[in-house]
Fold this protein.
Amino acid sequence: MKFFLDSAKLDEISYAIEHWNIDGITTNPRHLANAGLKVGEFASQIKNLIKGTDISVSIEVNPHLTDAKEIMKEARYLASLCENFVIKIPATESGFEALAQLSKEGIKVNTTLVFTVFQAVNAARLGAHIISLFVGWREERGETDTDLIAKVVKAVKNYNYQSKILVAAIRSSKHIADAALAGADIVTASWEVYKRAFENPYVELGLNIFKESWNKLGGM
């Protein structure tokens, strides 16, 4: 499984690359707004951070675009900026239309805002490089399907589609565990979720016990 960081904050991204060996970055307009960066500014600066690496960066087209031709035009432009860029396009009718053509052109597409098995399978059959399945948004609104990740993974793998299943909108380390157990290819989580996941009271308990023993030995 690959771990992606869901952020547009360059300090978080730099830290994750250096200390966590993060495999990729996902961002969206909300993350860009939180970071105070326009798409062009982010694209220019992130290229410097990932230069010489195979770190994937998913960057989203303008969410106001509803015409497939306009979506394709912007996607082509964004893809031309960096070979590491994967272009996020929403799972809408026009988004699927754009995906079908862009995949034929060799442009890597991350179909985002996927909430159902149908959306995932349709994206896979049209050549999506990544399928972003959102879990946290559903749970926050009272819709819990504990088997959804497994259903999506099974449906896509049933037909040997090459799309990678990415689990997004992760709110806890449990979501990461659920994704791993269901066979998802990638998880993307925020800085805060990863930091909390690294913390474990039993590890701290064990370290304190070992420290006491170490001190009794007087070091090396």
In short: The beta strands are 2-6, 24-26, 56-60, 85-90, 109-114, 130-134, 164-168, 186-189. The CA atoms of residues 87 and 109 lie 5 Å apart. The mean pLDDT is 95. The radius of gyration is 19 Å.
